[in-house]
Amino acid sequence: MYARSLGDDGATLGPLEPWQAGEFLAHMDRGREFIGRYNELPDVVRDMESSRAYLRAYAEKTATDSGRICGIRLADGTLVGAVILRTMDVEQGVAEAGCWLEPAAAGRGLVTRAVRLLIDWAVEERGIHRVEWWVASANAPSIAVARRLGMTRDGVLRESYLYRGERHDMEIWSVLAPEWRAAHGRAAGAERD
């Protein structure tokens, strides 16, 4: 198993797999209300069976090169969040990134650091040209992540997302591979740090 450092605080980013369903469910239970403000995941992952099914679906996406899930862990190994490539179309060069975090880990920059690694991998290793970030307009913390990542707001899909009986505007943010490389001082195909 591998893990990538997220910085000096000892936090790491690593794959999540179906055999970790119990740990994933415990994480979801700790953050269910906080995560569920704008994300339907807590409604999907309710018990051990649904937790395993969710991680199995991402294992299949990994196997077919159409998505990814990576867990964010604190220095003590506690799973506190995740970043995903919800969709990844390598042929078209387009992917959609996403994230969540339980409340105890919020405000530490973990998501921004983790998504940076994920986007860097998608652009440099998988040749993704456009990474999208879909976010409810009311989700200010997630919009702040998009800004910190250097993404551009492409537009708003007004009242396009029905969630828990309420219609939400969804913003689409994106970053293109040339923009990503320029922001990180790399040319296409250049070696990573």
UniProtKB/TrEMBL annotation:
Keywords: Transferase. The keyword Oxidoreductase does not apply. It comes from the Bacteria. Residues 29-171 form the N-acetyltransferase domain. InterPro entries: Acyl_CoA_acyltransferase (IPR016181), GNAT_dom (IPR000182), Ribosomal_N-acetyltransferase (IPR051908). It is an enzyme of class 2 (transferase). GO terms for molecular function: transferase activity. Coiled coil: none annotated. Its EC number is 2.-.-.-. This is GNAT family protein. It comes from Streptomyces luteolus. The lineage of its organism: Bacteria, Bacillati, Actinomycetota, Actinomycetes, Kitasatosporales.
